[in-house]
Amino acid sequence: MSDPRSPPGGGGSGGLPPRLRALVDDVVGASGLKGAPARRVRLDLEEHLRDGLERGRSVEELMRRFGDPSQAALLLSRHPAPVRGDRDPADGLARSLVADARHAARSLVRSPTVSVAVAVVLALGLGANTVVFTVLNELLLRPIPVEDPGSLVDVWAEIPGDNSFAGFSYPDFEVYHSENGVLENLAAFIGRRLPSGEAATAQEVTGQFVTPGYFEMLELRPALGSLSFAEHATFGSEAVAVLSHAYWSETYGSDPSIVGRSIRLKDRPVTVVGVGPLGFSGHFIGFPVDIWLPLAAADRLIDGFDPDDRASKELEMIGRLRPGVSVPTAESALDAMAEELERRHPDVNRGHRVGVTHTTGIDHGLQGAVRTFVTVLAAVAGLVLVIACLNVGGVLLARAMARDRELAVRMALGAGRVRLLRLLVTESSMLVGVGAVLGVGVAIRLNHALTELLRALSAGIALELAVDWRVLGLTGLAALGSSLLATVAPALHVLRKSPAETLRARTGDTPGGSRLRATLVIGQVAVSVVLMIATGLFVRALVAGARADPGFDADRVATFALDLSGEAGDRARAELRRDVVRAISRVPAVEGVAAASGPPVGVGRSPASLVVPGVIPPPEADHYVVDVRRVGPAYLRVLGIPLLSGRGIEEDDDTGVVAVVSAALERRFGGEGTLVGSTVEVDGRDVRVVGVAADTRYVVQDDTPDPLVYLSTGGDDASLPFVTFRAPDPSSVGERVHAAVAGVVPGYRPTRLRTGREVLAAALLPQRLGAVIVGAMGVAALFLSGVGLYGLVQFTVARDMHQLGVRLALGGGRRELLTVVLRKGVRLVLIGTALGVTAALVLAPGLSGFLSGVSPADPLTYGLVVACFGVVALVASWLPARRAMRIDAIAALRSD
Amino acid sequence: MGGVVDRIPEAWMRGAGPLAVLELLSQREMYGYELAEALDRVSEGALSMGHSTLYPLLYNLESKGLIRPRTSKTESGRTRKYYAVTEAGRARLRREREEWAGLVEAMAKLGLT
Question: Which of B52, B58, B74, B78 should one mutate to test binding to chain A, selecting the residue with the greatest count of A CBs within 10 A?
């Protein structure tokens, strides 16, 4: 309070005997008056009492004639002393806000344990949300750091009916670049991992090959040297490079003499001509580029890249709209060009269409998945925050209930409900404020850990998770919302209250308040149950995915990438690859070796068109799209994929292209036993089907196996960059395998060997990330609702001490008390769990995209979560129940 | 008034208290303690109010502009606040006197004398 003890000008209360001073203190204190009116009242009362003393009245007489101090306080609060020269109302509001803040701070300090616990709870909730906001900011909000990002567009190719990657050939790009009238500029690019440095110590870097106008289009300025590839636009000209600022500072220690120096990429000399601007690592978020090179160098540095081949559609495009041109206009103009290209080159451009979208930093094919991921993340974090707020609301409500008499007296004395609400909001805001500051601290640490986790998982994703003003703004909004949400319950309680009823009541509790608190606990339990079920489902999907039969011998195979692009000519490469296969097969313990176009499983697809005679293609298309795997001889045997009919792909198939189809493909397009011996059309080429293989889970996120075609190479196995071998313990023979390859390939640089299990684990990365993040939040939620329940039961025991004492005094057993207390907690958890399970049953199907092999209504998960909450209910109720059992009947009866 | 009852009940005091204070202060300005004692003495205890009740009443009248405080020094050097009736207070007093007289007259007609 701001009541002055020694007011200026009035001689103070020094001249009054202590009892009279105490009388004045009581009256002014209980009146609730503050500031100038309080000072005036104090002065007047002191003056009055001094006048009485001067007139010879005794202290006793003055006190008797003064009347009932509480009556005085009540009247004073209704008619506070008018004060002349009052400050303006805004000043008054500011002062009363300060007074509220002081009052709130005092009441928080009075129960430090509860306050700290609440702040920690909020820090967890707000911290989790800040992390999610950071991810959201990085992925969806923060514009890419270039000039006028709003006019940049992604120009992408698509084949209707096929959701996989399609690109542009270089000749196509030249047409779009020179003939379109809607884009100010258009650039093409292609990314590749490249070994950098001397052969023996080479490190992989991410390279991006771009057409000359790329940096000019983005309007970027170099940190050093030049960003222009204009002089290196002709295929065959000297290879040059621009380093990203981050790569330059990490690898070259920001050495300014780097420009003009020669570095080695893929064992070839490349001259550095410049360093990109600080903060720019390419226009894709999460996939930072280390080095940019002119596309004109791609034919030497990318295996199989041929700028003249119209069928090689590997380029992507980014452009800048001409002023005044809209995205739909640009799309229809470019799509018309695609139709024209299809007319001119029907063999390689059949069905190709062009889409245009604003550049967001996320590949258009990934945008849906990214949005789903961020939405799930935000929903989960939001739920944790809701639990935290309900928890804090419970604590504030308990406090409000404990102070009911104080609040009722204040209300009876005329303190408005608005004022009381403001006091409650101030209290919760202070708690939320402390929680938010701690939460941001927690988030910065978590962001760091998450960045490290992503790096450790070596998924090729690197996110810059930084807390900036947008994140702080969102956290601020969340904190504001939290503060209001946390105040709802106590505010309702205060607003419903009639002061007279409370003052008459024996204790501070009312049935309405108890119900409200119980509702809060039920809410927390319900939300936590939903989160825990989501966690359980993710973990189950992870386990199911790891255990599921992938359709090949994951334990007995290992695979690695073999880059032979340094060898001149397809023939030489094919020959060398065959030598490699032979060399590895001679390594002891190796049971078989085969080359293929991809690793055994993966998240990406290699689509091809398929026409099966007699099977009608889908509407508006003249073919189906299926996944194709080009494989060398013995591939199916090496991977342990059983043949169901016909034969596999063998050495003899070198002379022509044959196919083995998966059982799923045969079921879908022909029916069992119909395709072996028939001829189908794959990518416009007739191919004879020689066998049917058992299904494998090529893309492990899917429950159902995809139709898959294994194609022989027809003797051209130059483009089979993955080697897979079979051995009882494949990782133990890795070194000998690499040594065998080194004996055949001059200047061989071993790449990372991954066992079948490791390949599967990498393919399960989305589930792992989901399980880790949702799991952490689920555990936090379980903890929070446990604490909330404990708090409620504890509070109830304290409140019902008298009633419990009566029960004991009337001969009730202590066991009976235990049952009474336990029953209350368990009942709330039962209701909350039932609500949570119902909500989960409704919501979980929305997660099914992440839950391969697990039903969204998985009974085991639901059962375990319910059991888990049963245990929490028992523990959280048993601790306070123990206290109830130990009470002394007499003391309890007296306690009221 | 006076002598018949020990003390006027609270319900009556709500109406009578402000009128009595205005009446006394209209005769001369007084400070708080003096006013409390005067009420006690003149009404022979019937209108005596707990001193704690007096101050809110004075604040109420002051805030309505019916009385006005004036500060002056006592002989002992302390400051003391004297209250006097304002013009608005006098007008209110005239009106309430008439109302009071009307009430008493009406009561008398009922036989309550």
Answer: B52
For A405, counting Cβ atoms within 10 Å of its Cβ (0-12 exposed, 13-18 middle, 19+ buried), the class is: middle
Give the mean pLDDT of chain A: 79
- Are residues B52 and A27, on separate chains, in Cβ contact within 8 Å? yes
Reported in sequence order, the residue ranges of A57-182 that DSSP labels E, i.e. its strands, are: 152-159, 162-166
Looking at the complex, report in whole angstroms how far the Cα of residue B52 sits from the nearest Cα belonging to chain A: 5
pLDDT at A245: 92
Residue carrying the six token digits 């990203």: A244
**pLDDT tens for each residue of A230-272:** 888 888 778 899 999 988 988 888 888 989 998 888 878 899 9
Q: What is the mean pLDDT of residues A464-482?
A: 82
Q: Given this model, what pLDDT does residue A240 score?
A: 92
The helix-helix angle for A511-547 and A814-843 (nearest 10°) equals 60
CA distances from A120 to A18, A163, A378, A467 (A): 44, 46, 20, 20
Contact at 8 Å (CB) between A408 and A493?
Answer: no
Coil, helix or strand at residue A234: coil
Q: Is the pLDDT of residue A690 over 80?
A: yes
Cβ of B63 and A54 within 8 Å? no
- Write out residues 72-111 of A within 8 Å (CB-CB) of B: 72, 75-76, 78-82
Interchain pair A10, B60: CB under 8 A: no
Flag the least confident range among A12-16, A167-171, B35-39. Answer: A12-16
Contact B53 A72 (CB under 8 A): yes
Distance between CA atoms of residues A853 and A866, nearest Å: 22
Q: How are the residues of chain A apportioned to helix, strand and coil, as percentages rounded to the nearest 5?
A: 55, 15, 30
Task: Give the three-state DSSP class for A267.
Answer: coil
Which residues from B are below 8 Å from A when comparing CB atoms? 31-34, 36-37, 49-53, 55-57, 59-60, 62-63, 76, 78-81
- Residues of chain A in contact with residue B49, where contact means CB-CB under 8 angstroms, are 67
B-interface mutation test, from A24, A40, A48, A54, most B Cβ less than 10 A away: A48
- Does residue A89 or residue A873 have the better pLDDT? A873
A547 touching B, CB under 8 A?
no
| pLDDT over threshold 50, residue B3 | no
Asked if the Cβ–Cβ distance from B33 to A79 is below 8 Å, we say no
Among A749, A734, A294, A308, residue whose Cα is nearest residue A566: A749
Whether residues A68 and B50 touch (CB distance < 8 A) is answered with: yes
Per-residue tokens: B103: 């009430």
Residues of chain A with pLDDT > 90: what percent?
Answer: 13
Nearest one of A853, A854, A554, A593 to A736, comparing CA atoms: A593
pLDDT in tens, A10-27: 344 557 888 888 888 888
Q: What is the pTM of this model?
A: 0.59
Provide the pLDDT for residue A893. 57
Give the pair of three-digit tokens for residue A256.
């300014």
Tokens linked to A165: 């990657």
Contact residues, A window 174-213, toward B, CB-based 8 Å cutoff: none
- Which of A359-368, A611-620, A818-827 is predicted most confidently? A818-827
**CB pair distance less than 8 Å for B59 and A27:** no
Comparing CB atoms, the residue among A11, A52, A72 nearest residue B52 is A72
Contact call for B63 and A69, based on CB within 8 A: no
295-314 of A, contacting B, C-beta below 8 A: none
Nearest by CB to A82, from B57, B63, B81: name it: B63
Tokens, residue A135: 């991810």
What is the Cα–Cα distance from A351 to A338, expressed in whole angstroms? Answer: 9
Three-state secondary-structure class, residue A460 = coil
Residue A473 is predicted with a pLDDT of 86
Q: Which residue in A513, A457, A534 sits closest to A844, CA to CA?
A: A534
